[in-house]
Design a protein that fits this description.
This protein is of the alpha+beta class. 23% of the residues lie in helices and 28% in strands. It has two domains: 5-165, 2-Layer Sandwich (D-amino Acid Aminotransferase, Chain A, domain 1); 175-340, D-amino Acid Aminotransferase, subunit A, domain 2 (D-amino Acid Aminotransferase, Chain A, domain 2, Alpha-Beta Barrel). The protein binds pyridoxal-5'-phosphate (PLP).
Length: 361
């Protein structure tokens, strides 16, 4: 791969971050970009000013949705170091998503290098308060101007950065979730295990219907029978039974979340009985009625741990921990954020320091 070109903008004043960062509303000055053309491969890697992308109206992505993305975070630790949480795993997932969408894979080591270079350049944009982070959004889309249906012969990969606020500015708040069987998000052997825009497009209507009824999000059931719980669409889901913490197994229609994987590892470290298996919604309801469901929580890069206070299925509302965060939710949240901000030793090798460029992928 060629060397990265640096077309940097001159910053005439220091970066001042607003008090309220929110999520995905503010972007840093620069992006990383590279192009792919059939016969040449990935080329033209450059870190340059963030600006509008000129696009041919026939760009294949606009018509047939051939694209993938990912989302990860960089943090400023207590001692002022810049770290990224499990970037190799996220980069590997880009390639896994790409395979199913016929998008050419990227060199994982090179992409990690590019990502670290971009973050190094934009380090002044990393907020430092607890809960705040620099959200990293890499994405790839088919850019060939052509209206026929086939995989594009040209692609663009962009990494953009967005400083984000604490997900729970008013404290850790449980969400209200609707289990729907009116719509499905993904099916086995389809795209459910890829981070691709199509899954989000498929989830919008169900999500809007749920919001109108006062729910925050939807818990999706399997696409074939609408019997087994799958995920929340931006989060994986865990059910804490009395003697078991269960999460749906990765059978092809569920996104393999990095937070999900981290939580499973931490629960194992704590000698808790964590399982990956089929969980039917009927089982959850029955066990709830017997008083055997201690709590439910979601996992994802944005919120890290999202306690579920209420789960409604066919008009039956289940309440967990009286609508308060469960003990385990708080413990997991604190554990993971302590690793992020360097308050706790990183025993699993999940943290990558931005200064350190000799990282194996
Ligand atoms: C990103 C995402 C998640 C969470 O994955 P993390 O790697 O933990 O951020 C869960 N479900 C879907 C559909 C997603 O796109």
């Amino acid at each position: 791969m060629e060397k990265i070109k640096y077309n940097l903008v001159k910053r005439d004043k220091p970066v001042v971050l607003p008090e309220e960062l929110g999520f995905g509303k503010i972007f840093t000055d620069h992006v990383f970009e590279m192009d792919y053309s059939a016969g040449i491969g990935w080329h033209n890697p450059v870190i340059k000013k963030l600006e509008d992308i000129p696009m041919h109206p026939a760009s294949m992505y606009l018509h047939y949705g051939q694209g993938v993305f990912d989302g990860l975070k960089a943090f400023k630790t207590e001692s002022g170091e810049v770290v990224i949480f499990r970037p190799q795993r996220h980069i590997q997932r880009i390639n896994n998503s790409s395979k199913k969408l016929c998008i050419p894979e990227v060199d994982t080591e090179f992409l990690l290098h590019a990502l670290m270079e971009l973050i190094r350049i934009e380090k002044d944009w990393i907020p430092a308060k607890t809960g705040e982070a620099l959200y990293i959004r890499p994405f790839i889309y088919g850019s060939e101007p052509f209206l026929g249906v086939k995989p594009s012969s040209e692609y663009k990969l962009i990494i953009m950065l967005s400083p984000v606020g604490a997900y729970y500015p008013e404290g850790f708040k449980p969400v209200k979730i609707l289990v729907t069987d009116d719509y499905v998000r993904a099916v086995r052997k389809g795209l459910g295990d890829c981070k691709t825009p199509a899954n989000y497009a498929a989830s919008l209507l169900g999500g809007e219907v749920a919001k109108k009824q006062g729910f925050t999000q939807v818990l999706w059931l399997d696409g074939v029978e609408q019997k087994y719980i799958e995920e929340v669409g931006t989060m994986n889901i865990f059910i804490q039974f009395k003697n078991e913490i269960a999460t749906p197994k990765l059978d092809g229609s569920i996104l393999p979340g990095v937070t999900r994987d981290s939580v499973i590892q931490i629960l194992k470290d704590w000698n808790m009985n964590v399982t990956e298996r089929l969980i039917s919604i009927d089982e959850v309801v029955e066990e709830y009625k017997k008083g055997n469901v201690v709590g439910v929580f979601g996992t994802g890069t944005a919120a890290i741990i999202s306690p579920v206070g209420w789960l409604t299925y066919k008009g039956f509302e289940m309440t967990f921990n009286n609508g308060q965060p469960g003990e385990l939710d708080v413990k997991l949240f604190n554990e993971i954020t302590s690793i992020h901000y360097g308050k706790k030793e990183d025993t699993h090798g999940w943290i990558v320091h931005v200064e350190n460029k000799e990282v194996e992928v």
